Every structure is written in C-alpha cells, then in structure tokens.
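Hi R.,

Here's the chain you asked about this morning:
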Amino acid sequence: MTHTNTDATLARRIGDLVGGPANVASVHNCTTRLRFVVRDDSKVDYDGLSQTSGVIQAVKAGGQVQVVIGTHVERVRDDLVALPGWSGLADATAADAGKRRPLDVVFDFLGSTFQPLIPAITGAALVQVLVLLLTQFGWLDAASPTAGVLTAAGNAVFYFLPVFAAFTATRKLGANPFVGASIAAALLHPAFTALGEQGTQVQAFGLPLFLYSYASSMFPALLLALALGGLDRVLKRYLPRPLQQVFVPTIEILVLVPLTALVFGPIGVVLANGIGEGLAWLSTNVPFAFYVIVPALWIFLVAMGIHWALISIALVELASGSSVILGAAFGYQYAMFGVALGMLILTARQRNKRLRDTAVAATISVGIGGITEPTLYGLVLPYRRVLVIEMISAAASGLVLGLFSAHMIGFSPAPVLSLPLMAPMVGGVLALLVGLAVPIVLLQMWGFQKKGAPVTDGAHDDIESGVGRGAATTAGFRGMVDTATRTATVVVGAPIAGTVVPLAQVPDPIFSGSLIGPGMAIVPSAANARVVAPVSGVVVAAPASGHAIGLRADDGTELLIHVGIDTVKLNGQHFTPLVRQGDHVDAGQPLLEFDAASIAAAGYSLITPVLVTNIGGDQRVDPVAEGAVAEGAALFTVHPAG
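And the predicted structure, written out as tokens:
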C-alpha cells in the first residue's frame, strides 16, 4: 500500500506539534495511536494536535504523549520517521527497550532480519530440491544450460544472502537499508573478488587485507548492520540537516566497506577456522563428546555461514574413505527434519496457516533435499523455544550416532537418501528416528513459543514492495468511515468469555468516548484466556505485541479487539498471537492467547473493547449481551439504521 500526501502532511504536522525530533526520545505506535516519549512536555501543543485534521484526539497518559489517529496509524508513523532527524527514533519498542532482556533483543533482531527473507529462501530451496531430483533420476543433464539456469535460480538467494540480510537488518535498526545492502554487496563485487585468491593477503589502506569468499556468509552482514545503525545515529545527530542526504550515505559507505573488508569479514573466517580446528581436535581426542556437541552447535555454524569450514575438513576425510564429521553432522539434519515435521503437525492443529505453510515447504526441503535454511530462518531462529528443542534433539540424535561410531562413506545432504551411505546403517536409522521423535514430542508438549514471547512474523512487510505494510487487500483499517451502503445485519460474537460492560466504563477516554468506533467491552473471566474470531474474515492488524487484533469481516465490517488498556507497554509479555496479518479466519477460530492473571498482576486493566471501526451513516450498533457472556455468544449486531 502506498502512502498518501495526506498521511505525509499529517505526519509532518504532528511532528512539529510535539516539539520536533529534538524534543522526542522515542516514538512508536499501537493499533490506533502514535505514542511519544518527550523530553519537555511544555513544548507539546495538545490543543493544536487535537484540532489537527486527521487527529482524533491528543492526550497525556501513561507517561506518553498519545496522538489518536485511527487504525491507519502505522502509515502515518512511517511517514513521520522518514522525515529528516526522525529515523533514529523509529524503533517500535524504543520506549520499553530498557525493560527487555538481552535475549529478547537478540531474537527480535534475528527474527526481523530473517523473517522477510523466508518466501525467497523457501522458494529457492524447493527449486534446489527439484534440480536435485531431476539430475539424480537422470531426467536432466547436470552440465546442460537448462540445469545451469535452474541451479542459478535455486542458489542465488543463498549466494547473495549477505546482501539481503544486510538490507533487512539495517532496516530493523532504522538506517537506510539500501546503504546496508550496498556495503554487503561490495564484498561480492567482481572488483573485490579479483584482488586475489582466497586465503591470500594484499595491502589496502596501508593495512593487511585478507581475502576470503563472503558469499552466503551471514556474520559480516550482521556486524556491518549493527555498525551502520550506530554510525547512522551519530551522523544524523551532528551533521546539519541540509547536508545529511548527501554526506550521511557517503560517509557510511566510505567507512564501513573498508571496515567490513578489513575487520568484520576476517573475524567471521577466523572464528570459522577456530571452530573447525577445535572440533577436529575434539573428534580425535574426545570422539563421543564430539558426536553430541557437533550436531547441537551446527545450527549456529549454518546461521553464521561458517559451517563450510567443517565441511571442507569433512570432504578431505571422505577422500580418505570415510568422514566422522559428516557422520556426526547428520544429527543436525535429522533434528531439523523433526522440527519441520513437528511444527507442521502443531501448526496444523492450531490452524496457524502462515507457519503451517512454512513448515510444509521446510519439511519437503530438508527431508528430500537436505536444505535446512527454510527450517532455520522460518521456524527456529524466530522462536527461542524451538531453538532449544532443536539443540536438544540434535544432541540426542548425535548421542545415538556416537553409540554406533557412525561415519559417512559417501556424501548426500538429504537425511533419508543419506542412510545407505551411513556406516553402520542401523545407527543412522535409529538416529533419524530419534531426531524425528524428540522434536515432535517436545513441540506438542511445550509449543513453539512461551507465553509472552513477542512474535516477529513480518506482519508489517509489504507483499508487493517488501518495505511497507501489508498488501493492499489486507493492509489494515483505513481509519475512516465506510460509506458503502449495507443491507445485511452482522452478528458479532463475543471474542472472550467474561462480563459485558458498556464502553463508557472503559478507563480510557479514547475508547469510552467511542472515538475509534462504537461497540462494547468485556472483562475476561478466565486467568488464562484467549481471543477467538467474532466473525469470519481476514486479519488486517496483528501487531507483534499481541495485545490487539483487527479483522475485516467478509461483508466489509471492520472490528478491533483491544485486550486491556495500555497493554502495548508489556511489549508482548503474557500474549501469544496465533495468527498473522493476511490470514483468513473462521468465526470461533483462536486468534491469540493471554495470561490474564499476569497482566492484572503487572497493574494493567483487562477490560477489552470490541469496536466497529468503519461504521457508516446508514448503520448502527445494537447491544445483545448483558452480564456474563460465553465465548462466541452474540455480543452486538451491526445493521442498517431504520
């Protein structure tokens, strides 16, 4: 969806009235409001904000300046942080970053980096599987131009993965993503690769430049993105605004391309070589521990693109007759196969269409082709619990391989196709069964994320452009009255079991004044509650914080379900989203779960407004339920006035 001139004008006006970027410590948004943490409240023009066309109301609440816009707020926020001086304030969780654990920050960063790449990685992996099958069965000559084209189609995203990862990681950190991608691309440019053979050394800038291949290498891309995020903030703080457009990207490229070539890239290679040498020593001196440690840690080697250091050693072993390294590494492959299959079973049960589709492609990719990237980036890295389950499963599978001193006498990346090349084969079969069973069982017992873990699911990525919000057909609420004439009555069910109260009793002036739209509110009755779809329709808003859900009913009626008041400040804690933006859901389908007792203990009201956000002049909302209401029971009706 493209931004309108009205959105950009509104963003600029709001930015001026809150005192400009110099007066703002951070800005983020929830489903209807821009939330500013300001340095000097006296510089905020509340009256001017409330009288601005496009602003419903401006209030000071919860230590923040809250500017209520409507459910198209994210478009306005993006236009605001695109203005000069605002990009460094753009982190959606900046106001609460100090409350987040380091591990939360790491997983949020990794999820935001890799999640947008999943469609390309998945598609390319399946192309690789197709080429593998066609060549292995003799239907396609591996040396033919046709095979070359298909191989390029399947390998390109992995070869240039540093460029794509630098783009998404830089975008997450608020700097210009095209600058980040350009820096990563410089190390793949023919002018750079022509400087010398891999492993050689030349002089650049008066310093030794070690030449390595950085294709498929993730570690330098992540490091340069982190450095770029910091440098971008410094430059924009001290350079005059008129000079920023030209000099900020120029300085960033001039500084970070050499720094990446001289420092970040070699660090990754040295780390890879050190790990390879250490594991080679372990395989010789403590072989049983080697079988457990290698499969458990292999996922990190793949994530950083340094697993090839071990594979190169393994291929030397294989040339001598057999490879212990490859034998142990299949504990990782078996566990990833089990994770993909376990996530497929779990998400099918939960009717989580997005993750189910990813799990289907991941299962095919790793099971037939031995390609683990869709599982790694789509199912494991975004969810710390799945990472723990994968490591446990890989160690368990490796333990079985160690009991049989398993080794490979040939090379095939696919778990099933590799079994005849495993000696003894019975060890490979048993290890595969363990690698499948352990993650499947643990995922069904523990789920794929703990309650309260924020989901980084790419819900705000534009399907068409890759940089905006959802596709136009599911972009979220328009934030305006729907003037379409409707003749049918819509019955809206209760999304939560609890006690019905009128909106006037909601302790928030925006909701109680029906400024977002009419409706009713529910106080949940269960300590561990959930939200189900009150109608059949499309999910048009699913923020990572999990505290709210927006739906567009099949007839066009738009609903907002907002669990609690100011619960966006929990930053995802105690909420578990079960769907993502763009999913079509049936009435009664679970949308999210939440720990009501923990939310209340944290001091937040649990009262949950259920609102119609695009009510037209020809429509009215009539209450149906009173007092206690069961989940799914009729809550109110939306029908033409008359």
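The CA atoms of residues 109 and 172 lie 7 Å apart.

Let me know if you need anything else.
M.
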